[in-house]
UniProtKB/TrEMBL annotation:
SUPFAM superfamilies with a match to the protein in the record: P-loop containing nucleoside triphosphate hydrolases
Region Disordered, annotated ranges: 60-93, 230-270
Protein family: Belongs to the small GTPase superfamily. Rab family.
GO terms for MF: GTP binding; GTPase activity
Family matches, as PANTHER family: DRAB11-RELATED
UniProt-recorded name of the protein: Uncharacterized protein
InterPro entries: P-loop_NTPase (IPR027417), Rab_GTPases_membrane_traffic (IPR050209), Small_GTP-bd (IPR005225), Small_GTPase (IPR001806)
Biased composition (Gly residues): 237-246
Signal peptide, first to last residue: none
UniProt xrefs under CDD domains: Rab (cd00154)
Biased composition, class Low complexity, residue ranges: 65-82
Length: 270
């Protein structure tokens, strides 16, 4: 039986303990939220199959900035051409998720899991400024061990605790935000990190988006020939790798049924 994915990539989650890394993985893989989770010791694993490249990437507007050039003709004026290329066949990627421990006690163990990763979610808690202060150290650890081309997205988790975009100095106020979006985005620019996404593992808001951003950039790197798909150290494997029927593709977001069918996205979890 043919495998339900075209590529496999290793994705690591890193950041301070209590920032919600495990909750993000559980939300992505199982679609549920666990309010109390045991401290991760070493590493925990999960996996998910996601669509990469067009047409899904266009549908979800992932790493596809709109063209600044206006069309010369309206859609009604356009005439069908016999040479119009067919819509590309949807590709899928299996994300092998490595949820690493955030406690200092396990840091020497955690660092060893960065090797061979092609993507990373650098997670902090937007209601605890000290977790944001630590992301630079985590990024330095990652870049010392992982490949130079590793795709990194900064994730500000627990957005459900932020009822405002501004920082609140009152710990009893409904808005518990201690890090603004502007601060996080500026940090990304200064540290050459691909982008910033605010998520809530509790509500599920933007969780899939964060992982999709990483997966799509990895796919673009594959298309650009940046990985040796036959090299076990690259963090990305091509067709035929992994073996076995590992799962099914999943629906990311809630597109209409027609669009989902067109993009080749099916429900399920792996």
């Amino acid at each position: 039986m043919a495998q339900p994915y075209d590529f496999i990539s290793k994705i690591v989650s890193l950041g301070d303990s209590g920032s919600g890394k495990s909750s993000l993985t559980i939300r992505l893989c199982e679609g549920r939220f666990v309010s109390h989770h045991d401290v991760t010791i070493g590493v925990e694993f999960g996996s998910r199959i996601v669509p990469v490249g067009p047409p899904a990437s266009l549908q979800y507007n992932i790493n596809n900035p709109a063209s600044s050039t206006p069309p010369t003709k309206s859609p009604s004026d356009a005439k069908p051409s016999k040479n119009t290329p067919k819509e590309p066949q949807q590709k899928h990627m299996k994300l092998s998720l490595w949820d690493t421990a955030g406690q200092e006690t396990y840091k020497s163990i955690t660092r060893s899991y960065f090797r061979g990763a092609s993507g990373a979610l650098l997670v902090f808690d937007i209601s605890r400024r000290n977790t944001f202060a630590s992301v630079t150290s985590w990024l330095n650890d990652l870049r010392q061990i992982a490949d130079d081309d590793i795709v990194v997205v900064l994730v500000g988790n627990k957005s459900d605790l932020a009822s405002s975009s501004t920082v609140s100095g009152d710990s009893t106020a409904p808005n518990k935000r201690q890090v603004t979006r502007e601060e996080a985005e500026e940090w990304c620019q200064n540290n050459k990190v691909m982008g910033y996404v605010e998520t809530s593992a509790k509500s599920g808001d933007n969780v899939e988006r964060a992982f999709l951003e990483v997966a799509e950039r990895i796919y673009q790197n594959i298309e650009a020939g940046k990985y040796d798909l036959n090299d076990r150290r690259s963090g990305v494997k091509g067709p035929g790798a992994g073996g076995g029927n590992a799962g099914r593709s999943v629906t990311l977001g809630r597109p209409d049924k027609g669009a989902a069918k067109k993009a080749g996205i099916a429900g399920g979890c792996c």
